[in-house]
Design brief:
Keywords: Membrane, Transmembrane, Transmembrane helix. It comes from Micromonospora pisi. With about 150 residues, the chain is mainly α. It has one domain. Helices cover about 70% and strands about 0% of the residues. Helix 2 runs antiparallel to helix 3 (about 90-110). The two termini are about 40 Å apart.
Length: about 150
């Protein structure tokens, strides 16, 4: 092999696709989804706190206390992802999609175990489905930076 480099192809610079410009104003769908996530998250946090205090004070089983803690963590993640989405963080959109998926799964498990009524389950699934539909839309996708 020759040392002059004639046997290797020349190096080519790497180019990335240009990213679309971020909107100058926050889309209305981002406002709506962020407010819903933060509102439902704060509601879940307050109810989870009351549930946890009540479970501890009445000496409930460890499973009930664990479910209250999981509820608090899920609600905190919902608030955090709503705030992140509002400010355009990609992790906010990803977190919101994850929280909506976990909410649908938890409602399905609760409905299967007769923990919630049919109407409550359908409303919860419908609300989360609408949130996922909006989160997967172009406006929210563009606000959070796209695929970069």
């Amino acid at each position: 092999m020759a040392q002059d480099g004639a046997s290797r192809p020349p190096l080519r610079p790497r180019y990335s696709r240009p990213s679309p410009p971020r909107p100058t104003t926050r889309p209305g769908s981002v406002w709506v989804v962020s407010l819903l996530l933060v509102g439902y998250g704060l509601l879940g946090t307050s109810l989870g706190t009351v549930l946890l205090e009540d479970a501890i004070s009445h000496g409930e089983e460890d499973v009930v206390i664990l479910m209250a803690v999981i509820s608090l963590l899920l609600s905190a993640a919902q608030v955090t992802s709503g705030i992140g989405l509002f400010f355009g963080a990609r992790w906010g959109r990803t977190g919101a999609l994850t929280v909506c998926g976990v909410n649908v799964l938890s409602v399905a498990v609760a409905a299967a175990n007769d923990g919630v009524g049919a109407a409550q389950a359908w409303i919860a699934v419908a609300v989360n489905a609408v949130l996922v539909f909006i989160l997967l839309g172009e406006k929210v996708h563009g606000w959070t930076g796209g695929d970069n």
